[in-house]
Amino acid sequence: MNSVAAVAHPNIALIKYWGKRDEALHLPMTTSVSLTLREFPTTTTVTVRPDLAADRVTFAGAPAPEAFAERVSRFLDLVRELSRDRRHTAVDTVNTVPTGAGLASSAAGFAALALAAATAYGLDPDPRALSRLARRGSGSASRSIFGGFAVWWRGAGDGESGDLSSFAEPIDAPLLNPALVVALVDTREKAVPSREAMRRTVATSPFYPAWVEESARDLDRMRRALGEGDLATVGEIAEANALGMHATMLGARPAVRYFAPGTFRVLDRVLELRAAGIGAWATMDAGPNVKVLCDSRDSAAVAAAVAEVAGGAERVVVTTAGPGAALSGSGHR
Ligand code: DP6
């Protein structure tokens, strides 16, 4: 049987994706910018199995939760439609990132699945088409196709025109040597899944349109700063954009709040680091954990400072820029 394995890494957005204009095609309201990490790879193996009457989805060999299996199977329907191949598959995913904790496990997972499934079904997509395909699994997965910094374009229009123009591509930032210090404040499954939180924010938060407008300005300034190697400006924009995103959620009805007590302690420590002259800027996703952007040279000092308030060194992971999605071996079994 033809088995294809692919590996991909999570990415952390510096300009966030928060809100869809098309729920079915995963077309975002805004363009986002991210950094793909070297840590927490996800490996997904896809085996096309003519003998199966339905897809079989496992997590490291054990049956996956039903909702996840269903989501993977819908994604595979798309691959089957594109390849005109109706066979089912066995999909096994090995995650090294805690799921559901705002550390973007779905980005790495669907980027790896998109590459493995597209290859197993003989699609051979170019990077742009692969990014568009990964987007259909999870929006942020479009960016994990690429290593380093990436921009995921909002795209123009709706329907097919939106689908064709909403993809990620790499951003060159040769002067930067970034690190992200991840402070694991709480790794339990989040109370409100990001998909639901996003939907509720767009539908009910009076602050949401203002954040969307500001995000377009953030994008222009961020791209310039990345090109110029100006980490301080990149960090300032990233922190403001993330806190602004959380402000839109606090304005939703009912409110969505991902901050935990430990989150505030880490955010305070980041302010103290800056006051002491160390370049460190915080960003947060759909969870209480804080990711601190800094120069690689400062990452040990930042990690030590953050560990003091995050509950110890084992709660802190230092990461740097990592690679895009890649095949990790294929063969006939
Ligand atoms: C807060 O990509 O997980 O991490 O497209 O609904 O699967 P779906 O959402 P997802 O959302 C990520 C949201 C975020 C910000 C970001 O990564 O840009």
Task: Give your account of this protein's structure.
- The protein has helices at residues 66-83, 105-120, 127-137, 141-144, 159-165, 194-204, 208-228, 231-250, 261-275, 299-310, and strands at 2-8, 11-15, 20-22, 27-28, 32-36, 42-49, 56-59, 62-63, 88-95, 149-152, 168-170, 178-183, 280-284, 290-295, 316-320, 326-332.
- The protein has 2 domains: 2-174, 2-Layer Sandwich (Ribosomal Protein S5, domain 2), CATH 3.30.230.10; 178-320, GHMP kinase, C-terminal domain (Alpha-Beta Plaits), CATH 3.30.70.890.
- β13 and β14 form a beta hairpin.
- By secondary structure, the chain is of the alpha+beta class.
- The strands form 4 sheets. It has a 6-stranded mixed beta sheet with strand order 8-7-9-6-1-16, covered by helices on one side. It has a 4-stranded antiparallel beta sheet with strand order 2-5-10-11. It has a 4-stranded antiparallel beta sheet with strand order 13-14-12-15.
- The N and C termini lie close together (5 Å).
- α2 crosses α3.
- The model has no long low-confidence stretch (mean pLDDT 94).
- It binds ligand DP6.
